[in-house]
Amino acid sequence: MNKIISIFTGMALFACACNQSTNKNQNNNADSAGQQVTTAAKVPVFNVDSAYAFTAKQVSFGPRIPNTPAQPKCAEWLIQELKPLADTVYVQRTTVMGPKNQPLPCINIIATFNPDAKQRILLLSHWDTRPHADQDAFDKTKHLDGADDGASGVAVLLETARELHAQKQGVGVDLLLTDVEDYGISEEENSFCLGTQYWAKNPHVKGYKANYGILLDMVGARGSQFFMEAGSQQYAYGPMKMFWDVANRLGYSDYFRYENNGSAITDDHVYVNTMANIPTFDIIALQPNGNFAPHWHTQNDNMSVIDKRTLQVVGQTILQVIYAQPFEY
């Protein structure tokens, strides 16, 4: 993925500051019948062994690159995993135009829980793999496993789906697994996140809306730290601050940092924010200087970097938000 690092401008920072109070009381936690949404008092315990296994299973298919055998095989596995869990599973099969007008098959998968609820949370992650290790120090033409960059976020969502099925709650939740996120080239910024761009123009349900969205991208590596990305602050500061606060109360302050490292990243959340108009923030591992982790877009992005503790921190915070305080921002 391109995820261009840039310095947030003063204007954007001003917009972020203004947005801090915009949605504070926007949601009244009402369901489709106008009733008050109630959440279960008991928050499930995130099964990190299961999430780790889901990560390894995706990697076992090989690099999930469009136009390779691994793409339809992994897609079918994802669909079959979600069908017994979700109320409805939608599959978008289309062709998107990649860099230099290259046609690419694209398979978006959407799993819906509690579809009648009006108050909804969108959780998304891309499941495809970068076609080449363009940041590798030795061979930039090689493929990479994409264990952290793609598979880890999807694994956390799959385990979240298992919990949503096992323990019902009053909030609507939609899982969006997007394809062809990582095929772009740096010269064409909008050549990334093609599956998300397609979904934003063609949502699985006409007129689909969610109160906010959470993007998971690179959420499984050892020693990860998650800073408050600038574009996320601009469009979704309220729910993002709520999420960070929950994580810190759970004891995860070493992972979820409040410091602003000045990074604005081109990722799936950009198009959910600007095209679908759903306030969405990005949970993505960054270094304090704003750079990506050393394994980003290299052959080192394999199962050796995946850490159960990191998966558990992210997954447990998601469950805490969904089941205990989904709209308290």
TrEMBL record:
Q: What is an example of a GO molecular function annotated in this UniProt entry?
A: glutaminyl-peptide cyclotransferase activity
Q: Which SUPFAM superfamilies match?
A: Zn-dependent exopeptidases (SSF53187)
Q: Domain of life, per the record?
A: Bacteria
Q: Which residues form the signal peptide?
A: 1-17
Q: Which residues form a coiled coil?
A: none
Note one Pfam family from the annotation: Peptidase_M28
Q: Does the keyword Mitochondrion apply?
A: no
Domain Peptidase M28 residue range list: 108-321
Which InterPro entries does the UniProt record give? Peptidase_M28, QC/QCL
Q: Which UniProt keywords apply?
A: Acyltransferase, Signal, Transferase
PROSITE patterns, per the entry: PROKAR_LIPOPROTEIN
Q: Tell me what this protein is called.
A: M28 family peptidase
Q: Which organism is it from?
A: Chitinophaga oryziterrae
